[in-house]
Specification:
By secondary structure, the chain is mainly alpha-helical. The chain has a domain of 39 residues. 49% of the residues lie in helices and 0% in strands. It has four helices and no strands.
Length: 88
């Protein structure tokens, strides 16, 4: 039951959209290609243990950590407010 101007099910639609966005972002980030022995960002050698754990790795841990942190900052949607503010 939504309130105000929102139709019934609007909150669930937002939840579903958030989940779908996360799934699409994760699928986009999957790498099917083979990895590289050197980081594509900084050129440092990717340690053998990382290449064994993640054969498709193309970045060293430092560069991958920076990229992951940047991805967390930008989600593309502001869904962190209260549901009342989102439904207006």
């Amino acid at each position: 039951m939504a309130g105000g101007w929102a139709r019934d099910g609007a909150v669930q639609d937002q939840i579903d959209a958030t989940v779908q966005d996360a799934v699409e972002r994760a699928r986009h980030n999957l790498q099917g290609a083979t990895g590289t022995p050197e980081c594509v960002e900084c050129g440092a050698e990717i340690p053998p243990a990382r290449r064994q754990a993640m054969p498709s790795a193309t970045r060293c841990m430092a560069c991958q950590s920076e990229m992951d942190a940047a991805d967390k900052v930008f989600s593309g949607y502001n869904r962190s407010g209260s549901k009342d503010s989102q439904l207006r």
